[in-house]
Design a protein that fits this description.
Number of domains: 1
Number of strands: 10
Oligomer: single chain
CATH superfamily: Aldolase class I
Largest sheet: 8 strands, parallel, barrel
CATH class: Alpha Beta
Bound molecules: coenzyme A, zinc ion
CATH architecture: Alpha-Beta Barrel
């Protein structure tokens, strides 16, 4: 039985210093706070703030981020500085930084900015595509595939999101056969990775296992990722359900920031700190330090002017406070009374 209150346990993860890191199975976590997180916030975070957040994530050992999207700045004003953000991200190599590109115009802008990895977002329902990118499902499928093919031809790494793969805010439950059909189309067009997205955070672990169970009959598990939102508090449980089926790539967002401006009811992504804690404590290696992540979450909170944090943050802050060295007392001064 584990007791997570006093006495303080050792930090479950300081992966950079962990002697048995190499022996543990690796899980790749992509932090999407810069894109899925910031795109939906009423506060404006400028390029300098985004660059600081990227540096904090890189310093925490986050291997991969989604940094920006090359979409219409009229549709998503928060992403208008995508080229500048990518330039900042490139300076942080080996951090991998991807960007959304919904069409060939977005791909050209991404390539001009030096982006090495792009993602397309194909929603699995007719209405969601219309709301998000003003295209029918058929047109969105065609444009997404064309964008992926062009990206591959130009030597970029590629991700294909399947948005509203479980439930659509407009059309209800998404038929698994359609998710499979669209996933196969994106794979065929050159997606290195298919990312199954619970855009509005509606799935349960059982539903994750049902859908993935179907997809994995025809899609290789090492090409599959999960993008989960925590709307109903089941984000980490859903990630664990995917983990049990062999998924080793997950999106998450520092502080649980996130949501899609075009999908009513979409709240924050599963928090990176919650996901990393679950993964490390379950014996997987992420390469991410929880203290470093806590610092990135605090910075994101400062940038937005309100405290942020996933479910584990109060506990994590207590552990960090206990393990911090006592502040040295100034010689000759007694602490002031009161
Ligand atoms: N980047 C910047 N501008 C773009 C663009 C891109 N990738 N694609 C199109 N545009 C411009 C066009 O040049 C045109 O500009 P103009 O009005 O100055 O001539 C304008 O946007 C409209 O283009 P159009 O082809 O008619 O597209 P649209 O109005 O149907 O919008 C999208 C389509 C995809 C560009 C738009 O819906 C969009 O950017 N959506 C983003 C959705 C998103 O980011 N969702 C959250 C993430 S899932
Ligand atoms: Zn999302």
């Amino acid at each position: 039985m584990l007791h997570w209150d006093a006495p303080p346990p050792p930090m479950p993860t300081l992966p950079h210093h962990s002697p048995n890191d190499a022996a543990r199975e690796r899980v790749v976590v992509t932090d999407v706070a810069l894109r899925d997180g910031l795109q939906n916030q009423p506060e404006h975070v400028g390029t300098a703030g985004k660059a600081a957040l990227m540096r904090a994530l890189a310093a925490a050992g986050v291997p991969s981020i989604e940094a920006a999207s090359f979409v219409s700045p009229r549709a998503v004003p928060q992403m208008a500085d995508a080229a500048e953000v990518i330039a900042e991200a490139l300076a942080l190599a080996p951090l991998r930084a991807s960007a959304l590109a919904p069409n060939l115009r977005g791909l050209e802008r991404a390539i001009a900015a030096g982006t090495r990895e792009v993602a397309v977002v194909l929603s699995c329902t007719e209405t969601m595509n219309r709301k998000n990118i003003n295209m029918s499902l058929a047109e969105a499928t065609r444009v997404s595939c064309e964008t992926l093919r062009a990206a591959r031809t130009r030597g970029l790494a590629t991700r294909g999101y399947l948005a509203v793969a479980f439930e659509c805010p407009f059309e209800g439950t998404t038929p698994p056969e359609r998710v499979l059909e669209l996933g196969l189309a994106l794979l065929e067009a050159g997606a290195d990775e298919i990312v199954v997205a619970d855009t509005i955070g509606a799935a349960s672990p059982a539903q994750v296992q049902q859908l993935l169970g179907r997809l994995l009959l025809q899609l290789p598990v090492d090409r599959l990722g999960l993008h989960l939102h925590d709307t109903r508090g089941m984000g980490v449980a859903n990630a664990y359900a995917g983990l049990e089926l062999g998924v080793r790539r997950f999106d998450a967002s520092a502080g649980g920031l996130g949501g899609c401006p075009f999908a009513p009811g979409a709240s924050g992504n599963v928090a990176t700190e919650d996901l990393v804690l679950m993964l490390e404590q379950s014996g997987f290696a992420t390469g991410i330090s929880l203290p470093g992540l806590a610092a990135a979450v605090d910075l994101a909170g400062e940038l937005l002017g309100r405290p942020l944090g996933g479910h584990c943050m109060p506990w994590l802050r207590r552990q960090l406070a206990r393990s911090a060295p006592a502040a040295p007392r100034e010689a000759g001064r007694e602490p002031a009374a009161g």
